[in-house]
Design goal:
The complex is a heterodimer of chains A (about 220) and B (about 425).
Chain A lengths: L4 H17 L13 E3 L5 E3 L3 E3 L6 E3 L4 E4 L2 E4 L3 E3 L6 E3 L7 E3 L12 E6 L2 E5 L14 E5 L2 E5 L22 E3 L5 E3 L14 E5 L8 E5 L7
Antiparallel strand pairs in A: 1-2, 3-4, 5-6, 7-8, 9-11, 10-11, 12-13, 14-15, 16-17
Chain B lengths: L1 H9 L16 H26 L2 E13 L7 H4 L6 E16 L2 E10 L6 E3 L5 E3 L3 E3 L7 E3 L2 E14 L2 E9 L21 H4 L6 E13 L2 E10 L16 E10 L4 E23 L2 E25 L2 E14 L18 E12 L6 E11 L7 E14 L2 E13 L11 E11 L1
Antiparallel strand pairs in B: 1-2, 1-20, 2-3, 3-8, 4-5, 6-7, 8-9, 9-10, 10-11, 11-12, 12-13, 13-14, 14-15, 15-16, 16-17, 17-18, 18-19, 19-20
Classes of the chains: A mainly beta (about 220), B mainly beta (about 425).
Chain lengths: ~220, ~425
């Protein structure tokens, strides 16, 4: 049965109106999650987020993090205990007490937590090639793949009268014969584990079953 | 007689109209009828033979282009050459054949000088031109510059029914007026409208196309339905997602005026570009597949061609909406630190021409507007005025002045300055 011209035109108009009404575009939502439009009409990350690659939108920075360019960094006073971990309350600068995994070092210059007792340790720097690159009193030593600036042993050279005066120090031995100072006991001779300027002295020839770190040139057994 | 009958039979459609057993009463009449049948059969065989031959033909155009902006125009620093140029633009070859009853095939190539001369931008921002010069092995003293081939179409189709023909391969997207009639000798202006060049619909697709038409009284309704890979980095042979693109077109031819054809077209699909990286997991090679750019799109268009006596009017309105996947939104080309928003691009043009009785001249004007998909280029206005002349049935001469303005630009590369050009072209069919 032939269609009338009017019928045709109605069909035509219907197709056109239905077609033009179809919509994929939402003018109020033209950017990805965590993005907003710029003055130029493009999409950029909202405050507190960073781009994920060149095309994968933006992700919200975590707790205690702030956006800095393309990365989330720890806010002031916070630091990561290790790469990829969350930002936690941070310790202070050089020699500040820290704990691997729980109390990271906040100062970027001294962001290495050198363990001394279990996970507890002190903040220092890594990557030195010689002690002249380390802060005053620190020496550059190697521990496995890490070269770091090692602080002097606590209490080393402190005056003492009895062993109790050196308790709590790494230099826990009170030399009561001559110098009356706290010294580091149980050092290793080879390799020498003593701090720079000190030498591991074997006192076994004197009838003492000990090794002690003494200042260079003061080891009575040579 | 048996031969005549066989010949007529093989002629197919004429069979039903042909007398198989003529009356013996009038021998002269029978002889006349037989001669006529022989002639018809021979003519049909000739037509069949002609149709089943491989037809090789094509078109080409040669254009002179001169931009007319002031020497200080910043467009010369970015997009356009300050130097007037001759160019062989299109050089297209067609191979067409009816390969079997109900089966036919068309292949179209465009021969290119490219990539020779195409511009490359180095990381440091220096623009240089690709040089494809190589020593010719046929003559070791000469260099030749090799070019490329673009496969424009490659399809085969089967006529299932008078109302339905199924086409398979790579075909031009059926939308509007311009995309189907893309041969420069049959186009009125020199340049296609901006809204066509921006490919709001894909220029071609690879997949299946079902088409047909039916007359309703003095009106004809034709349809096209498409199923394809859609757009993609290598969509002519590789789909990088599970979503096939669909589309279609309806067109109505009416007897109003001398020609009045109106059409609507639609296309929707998903674009996906992916990268893959390899690694080892549990001593096995594993690949991480990442969608680096992905969007859904919906394009719609309406077109109208009206011809009355010497007056011709063509107009098209085209829209395209695109929404990017959250995790696969591309950086902006001009401001790469920011990403492209979803978009609703639209535009249209009106072309009007009058075929004069002298020298087969057709003066024409064209105006167009486009709101493109680029967020930093909100408005493009363009106008052209020119003359088209059919110097011969196979040769068209054209000249036109063209002006364009990109207004409201919000990027540092494109100046808010007018573009003016004069062009002259000869386009021919061979």
């Amino acid at each position: 049965m032939p269609l009338s011209a009017a019928h045709f035109h109605i069909q035509w108009a219907t197709v056109l109106i239905v077609g033009l009404g179809a919509c994929l575009y939402d003018p109020d939502d033209v950017c990805s999650r965590n993005q907003e439009r710029t003055d130029t009409g493009l999409c950029e990350c909202v405050a507190g987020t960073v781009p994920v690659g060149a095309t994968a939108g933006c992700e919200l920075c975590g707790d205690h993090e702030v956006a800095a360019g393309d990365a989330c960094i720890c806010a002031d006073g916070y630091a990561r205990a290790a790469e990829g971990e969350a930002c936690g309350l941070a310790s202070g600068g050089l020699a500040a007490p820290c704990a691997s995994g729980s109390l990271p070092c906040a100062d970027a210059a001294y962001d290495y937590c050198r363990p001394v007792d279990g996970t507890d340790g002190y903040c220092t720097s890594t990557g030195c090639t010689g002690s002249d690159e380390c802060p005053s009193g620190y020496d550059c030593v190697e521990d496995g793949a890490t070269r770091y600036c090692r602080r002097p042993p606590t209490g080393q050279g402190a005056p003492c009268a009895t062993g109790a005066d050196c308790d709590g120090y790494e230099a826990s031995y009170c030399e009561t014969y001559q110098a009356h100072i706290c010294l580091v006991p149980d050092c290793s001779i080879s390799p020498d584990s003593c701090h720079e300027g000190w030498v591991c002295c074997d006192l076994s020839s004197l009838g003492l079953s000990e090794t002690l770190c003494v200042e260079n040139g003061l080891c009575p057994t040579g | 007689m048996a031969l005549v009958v066989a010949g007529v039979f093989s002629a197919g459609e004429i069979q039903a109209q042909s007398p198989v057993a003529p009356a013996p009463a009038n021998t002269a009449a029978v002889a006349a009828d037989t001669a006529e049948e022989d002639a018809i059969a021979a003519e049909l065989r000739a037509i069949e033979e002609e149709e089943s031959r491989l037809h090789i033909y094509g078109f080409a155009d040669f254009t002179f282009t001169a931009f007319l902006m002031d020497e200080s125009s910043r467009w010369y620093d970015t997009y356009f050459s300050a130097y007037p140029t001759f160019a062989v633009g299109n050089l297209n070859l067609y191979l067409e054949k009816r390969i079997a009853p109900r089966w036919s095939s068309l292949i179209e190539f465009r021969l290119l000088y490219l990539p020779n001369g195409a511009e490359e931008v180095s990381d440091s921002g220096v623009v240089t031109q690709i040089d494809t010069s190589v020593l010719d092995y046929e003559d070791q003293t000469e260099y030749l510059r090799w070019g490329g081939i673009s496969i424009e179409r490659a399809w085969v189709e089967y006529r299932i029914h008078p109302l339905a023909t199924l086409r398979a391969g790579q075909w031009l997207t059926p939308y509007g007026i311009w995309n189907a009639d893309h041969g420069s000798p049959v186009l009125i202006p020199i340049r296609r409208p901006f809204v066509i060049g921006q490919s709001l619909f894909p220029r071609s697709q690879t997949g299946l196309l079902l088409h047909g038409s039916r007359a309703f009284g003095d009106q004809t309704l034709s349809y096209r339905l498409t199923l394809s890979n859609g757009r993609g980095p290598a969509d002519t042979y590789l789909d990088l997602d599970h979503n096939k693109a669909v589309g279609g077109r309806l067109a109505l031819d009416t007897p109003w005026l001398d020609q009045f054809t109106a059409g609507v077209s639609l296309y929707t699909g998903t674009y996906s570009a992916r990268s893959r990286s390899y690694g080892l997991r549990n001593d096995e090679v594993v690949a991480d597949d990442t969608l680096i750019e992905g969007y859904r799109e919906l394009a719609m268009a309406a077109d109208l061609r009206a011809r009355s006596g010497p007056l011709l009017i063509d107009t098209e309105v085209i829209t395209r909406q695109g929404t990017y996947a959250d995790a696969a939104r591309p950086p902006d080309l001009l401001v790469p630190t920011e990403q492209q928003p979803d978009y609703f691009a639209y535009g249209g043009y009106v072309l009007a021409g009058v075929r004069l009785p002298w020298l087969d001249l057709m003066p024409y004007v064209m105006g167009e507007y486009m709101h493109p998909m680029w967020a930093t280029v909100p408005h493009i206005w363009e106008g052209a005025i020119g003359i088209n002349m059919r110097a011969a049935p196979t040769v068209t001469l054209k000249t036109q002045f063209q002006g364009a303005r990109f207004s409201g630009i919000r990027n540092p590369v494109m100046p808010d300055e007018p573009i003016l050009a004069w062009e002259a072209q000869v386009a021919w069919v061979f």
